[in-house]
Write a structure and sequence with these properties.
homodimer; alpha/beta; Aspartate Aminotransferase, domain 2; Aspartate Aminotransferase, domain 1
Chain lengths: ~350, ~350
């Protein structure tokens, strides 16, 4: 730390992203899609578009907000886009919870929530999960604090029902409820339609998982116009041109291509069911994941040791050295060939 | 404003970006380059790269930081890259001046500095320019506050000499001095080599002006490793993957193509000299701009009226409705044909 940095950030512990590697490995550690993006993405990133990069991108992101709005049957003024959904979450937590505001989230969840709380001076309450890793919604009913919940939750993969989410949102009318639906495309019950009914709900999504565009950095939030106006006020005071022209065009083309992505998502869900079935045969405990990863544990070998052994075989998965989940592994769902290789490797390791 | 937004942001006035238009106009209002980016940019944005967008971009930005470091003869750990230089400035002002810290800047300068001060809770002193719009460096010697100066300054185009910048940096060893060199490529005297000598200097640059990549959103800052480590600490606590894969590859290819950009920058400088010469013939006052724009005034017609008349003729320039400069216009330097059309239009309007 330099002697110039504000003392407020002295103890700030940044988020640790999953490892990115160049080697030839089976990469099941950061919940990326195994499939390339829609061919429509290549079509719109034309030479003509690249030649016009001398001009600023549209700070209003009209083309992209319109394409997203159409998918979710809302108006474009209910859509905020960010440089990844991290950007959306950052602005939301800064704006609605920052400077001494109160926020709560599940204790086991996306590791970035506590980091945002720290950087923006938010008083964060981390609420323990039940022993089976599920969220007890009674902990959030009439809470009187802002709330952020990943649904499905990460790294557990467990999802809340539509009814339970509505109970949380409706019982906290004076606070923002952020439902982080990064993993929703893989068969959870989205609460998206509730944004028209409740002015305190912000639903965030990302192109990184379901839309094979982690490398493009685009996420979005949908909420009432008033909430979106607030987020835009912060964006225009921080970084007005927050998405580049290529991101705008590629993401707009991708989100409209339901045919391509419905098929890819169905394959991932099928590969997830295959993986769970096979790992259960090997004696693993697996949560009922609704995401593009599974969360698993075995008595035969510690999670840390299994992760290390798989790494030796060129397979990367995510191990969290964290209380309560340090004997679990989060494994991203890849192609069927990758999952077959994984299962075979785990069989070999655990039966050795 | 929704009832959920933190009261700290109630009076926040966001930055107003220059107008972006779709119509066929001569666009001389936001300091973009009239030239397309280097052909190398198209080469690196290959189909193979697009097909790999399912994988996260490199949060360490190794390829780009290495390419930038090579250009400026520093090490990659002295380079921080942002989603536009606005991103770099935001993190720097947040980190080094935020939460009640003190910052000063010229009163007439980049309109975003006061916005950053506002959003991050910085105590900002805006120091008046001299009557000829130049910066009096005595105002900044031994100031005892953090300092941000655009050099060349915007919208005046006037530049500080290398010696004057060194006096400011060396006389404020306990504060950060940010030299915003967004417009430096167009013949100012860069202070970049001073980053090796002074641990309190941060120099920021952008690909938006000199490198014809405003639509790509890439900027960077160069400073001591300690300063860069601090900026990374904030980045990893806000948005670790802040540049997408396409931006990383395109910007790395662009910055290495000196042959292409040296030629384009030389043309812009030549067009600037042409524009100044012709406008002076028409009785205009022009500052000695070292940027890719000129800052001009005439007694024949008010700046607001001239901007409006030019707009009717399909030429957009930037008028600032702001005390002390409200009879000046900032005109971006475009292609020679565009500047000839501009000069002819101004002649017609002012001689009517």
């Amino acid at each position: 730390m330099s002697r110039f940095l504000s003392k407020n950030y002295e103890k700030l512990v940044p988020y640790t992203p999953g490892e990115q590697v160049n080697e030839k490995v089976i990469k099941l550690n950061t919940n990326e899609s195994p499939f390339p993006p829609s061919p429509k993405v290549k079509e719109v990133l034309s030479e003509a578009v690249i030649d016009k990069l001398n001009l600023y991108s549209d700070p209003e992101l009209k083309e992209l907000r319109k394409a997203i709005a159409e998918q979710f049957d809302v108006t474009p003024d209910m859509v905020f886009c960010g440089n990844g959904s991290d950007d959306v979450l950052a602005f939301a937590i800064m704006g609605f919870c920052g400077n001494g505001g109160k926020l709560c989230c599940p204790e086991i969840s996306y590791g970035f929530y506590p980091v945002y709380a720290d950087i923006f001076g938010v008083e964060l309450e981390q609420i323990p999960l039940k022993d089976d890793f599920s969220i007890d919604i009674n902990d959030y009913i009439g809470k009187g604090k802002n709330i952020v919940i990943a649904n499905p939750n990460a790294p557990t993969g467990l999802a809340l029902s539509f009814e339970d989410v509505e109970k949380i949102v409706s019982s906290n009318p004076d606070n923002i409820v952020i439902m982080d639906e990064a993993y929703m495309a893989f068969c959870g019950e989205s609460c998206m339609e509730l944004v028209k009914k409740y002015g305190n709900l912000l639903v965030t999504r990302t192109f990184s998982k379901s839309h094979s565009l982690a490398g493009l950095r685009v996420g979005f939030g949908i909420a009432s116009k008033e909430i979106i106006d607030d987020l835009n006020k912060l964006k225009y005071s921080f970084n007005p041109y927050n998405l580049n022209t290529l991101s705008i065009k590629a993401a707009a083309a991708a989100i409209a291509d339901n045919e391509y992505y419905d098929d890819k998502i169905a394959q991932i869900v099928k590969n997830r069911e295959y993986t769970v079935t096979e790992l259960k045969k090997l004696g693993f405990k697996c949560t009922d994941s609704k995401a593009n990863f599974v969360f698993v544990s075995t008595d035969k070998i510690s999670a840390a040791a299994l992760a290390a052994e798989l790494r030796k075989k060129g397979i990367l998965i995510r191990y969290f050295n964290k209380a309560k989940i340090d004997n679990y592994l989060r494994i991203t769902i890849g192609s069927i060939e990758e999952m077959q290789t994984l299962v075979a490797a785990i069989k070999e390791i655990t039966e050795a």
